[in-house]
Amino acid sequence: MQYDWQNIDTVLLDMDGTLLDLHFDSHFWLEHLPHAFAQRKNLMLEDARYKISQLMTEHAGTLNWYCVDFWSESLEVDIMRLKSEVTYKIGYRPTAEAFLKHCQRECSDVRMVTNAHRKILDLKIAKTSIDQYFDQLLCSHELEHPKEDVRFWQRLNENKPFDPERTLFLDDNEAVLESAERHGIKHLYSIAEPDSQRKRKTPSRFPMLANLI
Ligand SMILES: [Mg+2]
How many angstroms does the Cα of residue 90 sit away from the middle of ligand 1? Predict the structure, then answer.
């Protein structure tokens, strides 16, 4: 992929499904957590899955959806402990590290913008050292709005100004890309295969990258 570096001053990058394989997260939410929750509550696996998916639908696109404490309290399980049981599944997407090194060479303002909770970000940094590639790492909880909400981008700009016309942003979430577009961010890309173990089911209005670089 040839990015228009001449016209880019700021790079904003999502983490899960963009730089790191979404397989860790999919496996956790669709397999590991339902099994642990069913066991703990003495439920049939299908009932556990139903309860979790109901909460997910109810809180989709909100900070709760991304909040470790919300899930720990709602399901009465220790989400961080359960996550730490499957950290062997955390890993980079193909070419992600080469792409990050390239971004560092091409641009002096490279920021991670993630909806992941800071505790999860720390867990992933411990496993991948992904923080070494960024000038700044921002969790949406700290800006008080998820990336799906256009106020996130306003807060991001207040935190450290950037010119949306000269900003590159990569994310695998369509609602997030749409919100970035509403803020005026110009160079927008989606991801063709966020999860190495399952095919992407939804299309995108934005160009989808098969390879990051
Ligand atoms: Mg993502």
Answer: 14
